[in-house]
Amino acid sequence: MKILIVGFAKIKYMPYLDLYLENIDRAKNDVHLVYWNRDLKHEDTKKLQGITLHEFCSLQNDDAPKFSKLGKFKNFRAYALSVLKEGFDFIIILHSLPGVLLLKELVRDFKNRYIFDYRDFTYENLLLYKSVIHTLVNNSYKTFVSSDAFRMYLPQSERVITSHNALWSDLNKEKVLNKTQSDKIRIAFWGFIREEKTNLEIIRKLANDERFELHFYGREQEICESLKQYASENAENVYFHGEYTPEGRDEFARNTDLIHNIYAEDNMKLAVSNKYYDSMIYRIPQLVMKGSYMGVLAENSGIGKALNPYSNDFADNIFTYYQSLNKENFKNNCRQALEKVKVQQKNVTDIVKNINK
Q1: Domains of the chain, CATH where assigned
Q2: Comparing C-alpha atoms, which of 145, 150, 176 is closest to residue 162?
Q3: pLDDT for 336-352, tens place per residue?
Q4: Fewer CB atoms inside 10 A, N or C side of the chain?
């Protein structure tokens, strides 16, 4: 079978790609990948041996206004269509936007022969966009959804399957680390650093509080540079460490007491981030946004605390939560939550393994 995977970012920024890399038999299938090199920098593709790569090169800053990206989206569609002309039996769409861009071709030529991997809430409040998403779901072989809260914007269908935003290989490597010790409570964010307003508020609330250190690990684009500038002038206990490799995550997790997993923007209120699963895997409690879907999940599972960074008692609430944490109960809660995730994710991996049967 000739399979095309359509990504919408650099390979290293698509960890969810590994769900397919780990479960599609490359020896029996001719696998191709379209991806977008947005910073025009070289990328390590060793793990993609046996896969035909189609690199769309076009500079695009992730912080750029959405409407300024429309021209690049049009160019990406044209490139993806040129690859489609090579002829494929099955398509995997790794994001809603490439699905929207390729809607006509998917519905016309690949009905019931594509997986729609739905990961982010974007413009679903717009009736036309929501209608397009419904069309993509209803014509898919399966639609994987990374948060059950997204289901309110999707058709009620047996095609829609929960696919957790974590790698199967990671879920099976419970990493109870030998933690380094500190007299501070070390709070760490890792991933793409965005949400300037929210992170600025968190920095303000924790700045120069001798109980805490705040660490940021991740790509440093315009928003991050602004946060760094503020922290350098106003906070002695806030640190930025730059971009990291997946292998480096273990090391800084050893130096983390609480995971900063707080997102306040509306498009993240329903999402479930990678860090939600990292909390279970590494056995590190997480701080999540009060009123968000992750906040409900974390508190119901006993693996984190939902807080509002705009509350005056934000810092005190963090300190109280951490000091009162029963670590054995927390570890048991992580184990139980992780087992539930594994059961659901096994179903997803089986679907991917059997797409050519």
Answers
A1: 2-163 (3.40.50.2000), 171-339 (3.40.50.2000)
A2: 145
A3: 999 999 999 999 999 99
A4: C
